[in-house]
Amino acid sequence: MEPKTKISAEDDKQEIVITREFDLPLELLFKAYVEPEIVEQWMGTKVLKLENKVHGGYQFETSDNSGNIVFQANGVIHEFVDNQKITRTFEMENSPFAVQLEFLEFESITEETSKLKMHIIYKSVELRDQMLKLPFAQGINKAHNRIQEIVSKIK
Amino acid sequence: MEIRRDVFQAIADPTRRAILSLVAIQAMTPGTIAENFDSSRQTISKHIQILSECELLEQSQKGREIYYHINAKKMKEVADFIEPFRQMWDDRFNKLEAIMKNYKTKK
């Protein structure tokens, strides 16, 4: 079966394109990006600020069980067109990674299906590659945290 | 190339990722691994088998017990590829889809 989420990352380029088709009408897909409480659920982070407008900004923050902040990110919104596109920056705070530029394009396929194209531009090829390697380590940590959670509940 | 894809299928499963992170800390017997999960011992044993087949886990015999430990070399090979990044987004998008489907029916 072909994976639903596809990533195109050509060698020696400082950009990637993520595409995904959803079994959702376009309006619902877009809503998942603009309603803070929905963003929180699928991104797994707290949304401190989300201003869906040109010159608006957003701030995400994730804490562990003990309340320590483990992830902070922010950005500004450059373009915002309902059910069409969001152009924004994304910056991970307290990290060696430079700010990146994201072009999000939302498109309707049928009445019940839609598509998202996320075009991300990084500061350099090296930074892009580092960024791509990041989630594996995180995934392992996350799984580990979950185990700790389960284990601490049993005790 | 066939084997490589299998490795990614192996780490695509959250339980298997959790098993890997457990044995990354210390070698464990299948019984000890299973104690960390709600799933049946049989299910966990199946996951261990898949991870072993992909060479992500290695085993060693200590007395009568078999201990599983992580194959660091193989893990590094996997980490060098883009798949984990794709998987992360796929997980997020699957969640998004599930939430919004639910949202739709609630309305």
UniProtKB/TrEMBL annotation, chain A:
Record family assignment: Belongs to the AHA1 family.
Ranges for domain Activator of Hsp90 ATPase homologue 1/2-like C-terminal: 23-151
Protein name, entry field: ATPase
Pfam families: AHSA1
InterPro entries membership: ASHA1/2-like_C, START-like_dom_sf
Membrane-crossing residue ranges in chain numbering: none
Automatic annotation (TrEMBL), chain B:
Keywords: DNA-binding, Transcription, Transcription regulation
Top-level taxonomy: Bacteria, Pseudomonadati, Bacteroidota, Flavobacteriia, Flavobacteriales
Short name of any one Pfam family annotated for the protein: HTH_20
Keyword DNA-binding: yes
Domain of life: Bacteria
Organism annotation: Flavobacterium hibernum
Record protein name field: Transcriptional regulator
CDD domains: HTH_ARSR
Family annotation (InterPro entries): ArsR-like_HTH, HTH_ArsR_DNA-bd_dom, HTH_MetalResp_TranReg, WH-like_DNA-bd_sf, WH_DNA-bd_sf
A GO term for molecular function: DNA binding
SMART domains per UniProt: HTH_ARSR
Domain HTH arsR-type intervals: 1-90
